[in-house]
Please model this.
Amino acid sequence: MRDAMRDPLLLDRTDLERREAEVLAPYASRSAEATRRIPVGEEGRHYDYRPAYQRDRDRILHSRAFRRLKHKTQVFVPHLHDHPRTRLTHTLEVAQIGRTIARALALNEDLVEAIALGHDLGHTAFGHTGETVLREILAGECPEIPLPPAVVREVGTFKHNYQSVRVVDLLERRYDHPGLDLTDRVREGILKHTGWRKRLRFPLPDPEGLLLGAPCHLEGQVVALADEIAQQTHDLEDGLRAGSVRLEEVEALDVARRIIERLGADYTGEPRRWRRQNLLIRGLIHLFVTDAITASARRLARFLDRKKVDSHQRYLEVEREIGAATVAFSTPVGPLFAGLKKFIYRFVINHPEVNRQDWRARKVVIGLFRAFWTNPLNLPTYVLLRAKEELGFGFLRDLPLERIAGEIRERYHSSPGFARLVADHIAGMSDRFALEEYATLETPGPDQRPTGDVR
Model:
């Protein structure tokens, strides 16, 4: 949709796609080749100045699910202190590290950024505890919520990366169609930023384009590694700030000693603890990012030589033969990172404050699911409308009072689809919203806010 009368200094989509082809490596994804399920409408635009992956990035950035990340826990409860990472700030750090790696390897930065911004949209409140509890409930392993065996057999499991795809394919509503209609490579990268299985029992709305049986493309692999780097380094920093681990304990780690040796007197001669701490965190990020870039470049060079890749078209012919860990640490640095990860789990993730908030989180998620499953009228109207539209159920707010109990018993409580709707609703909540809902349902009082009908 190019306007012939436009300012000649402006670049439109085709100009930007041509520039991509000139500067990106042969193994990089091209925006011009992106595929999506529904063609993008013109919607009155004068001309198109966004390549496909930039458009996806913008769609994610403007989504409600993205905004809710600001009130979702990463490790430490964000509303108790000013500085712990939230799921949103974690996401931004993943995008920053991912773009750094992508630029150095001449990969598609817009694709990396879009995947990074969308990778955790399906994460629950309360960190990984919320994910674990929902998985246990749907598996029939939660005695407080005895789902019928027939429901358990059919409903499937819960995993946040699959839920992220469900969010962008189905649950976000900004257009005439469900979801954000992202390109297939962004959807694939979101799914594959952490472990996935070809036949996981999870109701993906549209598996087409996800290539469940193949390793992820390189930009997706960049995000997966950037996610690990960001997570371990910022969890360590948050743990140091929270006092869950002492700096001297961190300095004894093999990877920390390597950083300290490299910094020399700049570190050992620094009397201020806070500055040594910041030097160490920056040094860790620099070590891991630099190693990821150099080690990945060497693997890529060997693959290109082995497959005789001399053009982008040739690379496309062999792309899915590439290893799933092409973008990864070197052999010397991989064990150093694993040691840091083990240390963080022991002293940060397993810290008493984190354990206590995990215990509270279990009570909240179980209490909410029990309230919504036992009496669906506790759900907001939009979820009941989904039950009507997607499952063909009677809309409970329109039914005569004498029919409601029978409708719930015979249809809602025998439906795997309804259990999934409840899981979708809870998974989308921020920590704050979940805590407010729990307080409203479990400890009613005169000063509680109305829930409203639309989330």
Observations:
- The mean pLDDT is 91.
